[in-house]
Amino acid sequence: MAQASTPLNATVQQVTQRIRERSAERRALYEERMADQHKRGVHRAELSCGNLAHGFAACGSEDKNSLKLMNSANLGIISSYNDMLSAHQPLETFPETIKAAARAMGSTAQFAGGVPAMCDGVTQGQPGMELSLFSRDVIAMATAVGLSHNMFDAALYLGVCDKIVPGLFIAAARFGHLPAMFVPAGPMPSGLPNKEKARIRQLFAEGKASREDLLEAESESYHSPGTCTFYGTANSNQLMMEMMGLHLPGTSFVNPGTEMREALTRFATEQAVRNTEPGGDYRPFYKQIDERAIVNAVVGLLASGGSTNHTMHLVAMAAAAGITLTWEDFTDLSAVTPSLMQVYPNGQADINHFQAAGGMAYLIRELLDAGLIHGDIPTVFGTDMTAYTQEPFLEDGKLVWREGPAESLDTEVLRSVAAPFAATGGLTVLDGNLGRGVIKVSAVAEEHRVVEAPVKLFEDQNEMKAAFEAGELDRDVIAVVRFQGPKANGMPELHKLTPYLGVLQDRGYKVALVTDGRMSGASGKVPAAIHMSPEALDGGPLAKLRDGDVVRLDANAGTLEARVDAHVWADRTQYVAELDHYHVGLGRELFAGFRHLAMRGEEGAGVFGGFEADDLARQAGLIHDLDA
């Protein structure tokens, strides 16, 4: 069994310490606020009789009687359920399961509120994608509204996909006086192999497959309730929640609609009751999640080759808990974190294959034994992370945990620290006269990691598609898709471009993408410098580029440079794009305030400011309120 006392890797220790030191003031203010909220009342005992009567008016008599007693726990359920999206459809039945499990414990649970859940797979390449990133902050606010009634002793967060879990996490941090339990739905069973899906997508991009062929392939891939099975942002979310001890051990990748999934949801409810003050083992979020948990999430992300979206989400999530996480932290941790997983797009397997090969129990055991994660963090399940080397089983219908496998059952999918797929985590920061961005190289072959070529500039992904179809990109080229940042148009994913770039690379050309937008949790084999900061609309140097400028992207050296004479570069003016067409239609006009407030990608691309960091700066007279 892995030991929590394994000496911590020196770099992991150093990064954790510098995060702790740079965050000291804002973290102290965060903890002070959470402790104060706890003192003022965690639950319904603070409500007047009239408040309380409104709060349980719709309940049955049994629940009403329990709610009148202040020594029983009441759980608030926040859910991203809808029945259009496969990942969230299984959540439909969870509230009733949770309520029944709570009653069996002599407690209650109420559905506190729903949050929106949109799918980047549906909106990919469409105007609705421009609402995607901002939906994270809408979810955080919607969660806050649901929990604002102050009826609850703990909260259960039911969410899965890209922006939903980060949004729920941000809200959980701001309600940090409440114990938190994250409850996943699980991935759909395996469908069409990822290699075949990618092949048909590329054939369609070349005009060699019909739309009917493409739709059939996509339908065979995304075919049933559950999360998509590739290793994108949704499954990265689940892995990170387990790495931080916010899930039950081994719960992330159990398929929906199974007896095990049902048992885990019941047990999550029971454990949430135990973790409340009335339950006798009070474990508030703010005492559980600190810089050690955040570092665990980053290391888990890097070891698994997870989603680049989390170079923004984790920054925003950490900030909500009073912690300042930077891209340098990702880079330094990546240098010492071996790559242990190959799940599509980093390989051909899917997340179900990872689960079968040993899953989270094996991955966490390896990272603990190598001293790459903090074993001493409190969790929803126990006092440290050693319990997370176990996996759940059913014995006569009862849920038990046993030690997970000591060896990987498929080394093409999951490997040990001693024999990794690569020595590093495959994620790095690029820096140079074009600004700063991130690049995921875990799926990029070594021969494609350095590209020097003339640029072709685009202000819309559809422009690039048209140029590809017209044969204008049949050469060595770095495609620059700019004015795609959060202030410009909400920072949509540009994953639609992946097949076209892949075709060009397969034709033997040196190609890369540079953008101040996002690529995807499914960033693939073509080098892509993404989240470029500052964005073109915000004075970023991408706006200085002109068609034909030579740019060098060197993922090995961590540099991104326009090879333009320094004097010419300094004298160039910023090109200003016409963006009005991005701001109207499909509700985009409602998000004008979000675009105005959005921070840089490097700062998390959120709209909430720096939380305690802003307060401390105001106290020091460094910034002023807008209405001052």
Automatic annotation (TrEMBL):
A UniProt-annotated Pfam family: ILVD_EDD_N
Dihydroxy-acid/6-phosphogluconate dehydratase N-terminal domain span: 74-385
Catalysed reaction equations from the record: 6-phospho-D-gluconate = 2-dehydro-3-deoxy-6-phospho-D-gluconate + H2O
Gene Ontology CC terms: cytosol
Cofactor(s) needed by this chain: [4Fe-4S] cluster
The gene coding this protein: edd
UniProt KW Lyase keyword: yes
Textual note on the cofactor: Binds 1 [4Fe-4S] cluster.
Key word Iron-sulfur present: yes
Record InterPro entries: 6-phosphgluc_deHydtase, Dihydro-acid_dehy_C, DiOHA_6PGluconate_deHydtase_CS, ILV_EDD_C, ILV_EDD_N, IlvD/EDD_N
Residues the record lists as binding [4Fe-4S] cluster: C161, C228
Protein known as: Phosphogluconate dehydratase
One Gene Ontology MF term: phosphogluconate dehydratase activity
E.C. no: 4.2.1.12
GO biological process: D-gluconate metabolic process; Entner-Doudoroff pathway through 6-phosphogluconate
Role summary: Catalyzes the dehydration of 6-phospho-D-gluconate to 2-dehydro-3-deoxy-6-phospho-D-gluconate.
Protein family membership: Belongs to the IlvD/Edd family.
Pathway, per record: Carbohydrate metabolism; Entner-Doudoroff pathway
PROSITE patterns from the UniProt entry: ILVD_EDD_1 (PS00886), ILVD_EDD_2 (PS00887)
UniProt KW keywords: 4Fe-4S, Carbohydrate metabolism, Gluconate utilization, Iron, Iron-sulfur, Lyase, Metal-binding
Dihydroxy-acid/6-phosphogluconate dehydratase C-terminal domain sequence ranges: 412-605
